[in-house]
Amino acid sequence: LLVYDTEKKSFWYWDGGWKAVAATGLGTANQLLGMNAGSPLANEYKTLFGTLNQINVDLAVAGEITLSTPQNIHIGATPEFVGLTLSGLSANSGVYTDNTSRLTSTPPSSGTIGYWSRDDLGNILSPSNAGDDVTTTGDLNVDGAVTLASTGVATTVRGTLDVAEQATFTGNVDANAGLDVTGAALTIDNQAITQITGGQVTFAGNVDANSGLDVTGAALTTDQSITQTGTNQVTLGGNVDATNGVDITNAD
Question: Where are the domains of the chain?
């Protein structure tokens, strides 16, 4: 038994209580039969719409409704975006990944950081591509110690290396364009200064040779006095040319 309600414009039938059937019959094409939000409740035909650039609705196949996104967004997909804003990242900061592969603005304590690799145990920052050169056209200011060629590889400076504090060299120093030590002493501990190419070694100031001075294979020429101020002996094993004389005072 169907009863038509002229006020609500709907049909009613009895099934353990009165239930409504929408008066619009079967609705129109591509509609879904649902319930209204009114009181009393009644059947209602609804149209399913998509949203621009978000959800697509495909009703092309009879009996089927297909919902899709403009591009794949599953965990294995590679979606593309013109721009992306993540509120969890800090503005004007680098973007990194943490130990769970989540994006963060906090630099990791170890691992590859862009073109750099950081060793948290040794506190060492090095190029992530081993063998890359590091070049700067500006100043390089280091408050701590600088170790050059710690693995035995030669370090070349194509310019001037100015050291305002103490510099310690534990290996060979090749100064092809000269070595200027100004305003401080050049101290060599238990090592030799060897001239191997036949050129000249010139000292413009005092030379303190506390452990001796050996000149081999060539003449030692001075246009000033050689003065022995201590009590030790001066031994000359070869010829001594003293064109202006030799003064020996208070000695045998």
Answer: 2-68, 84-130
C-beta separation of 117 from 108 below 8 A: no
Residue 249: how many other CB atoms lie within 10 Å: 4
* pLDDT at residue number 17: 82
Strand positions, DSSP E, the chain? 2-5, 10-14, 18-22, 31-35, 43-47, 56-58, 66-68, 96-97, 103-104, 111-113, 116-119, 124-127
d(CA 99, CA 218): 67
The per-residue pLDDT for range 195-237, each reduced to its tens digit, is 777 667 777 777 777 777 777 777 777 777 777 777 777 777 7
111/117 Cα distance (integer angstroms): 5
pTM: 0.45
Residues 6+ apart with CB under 8 A from 77: 71
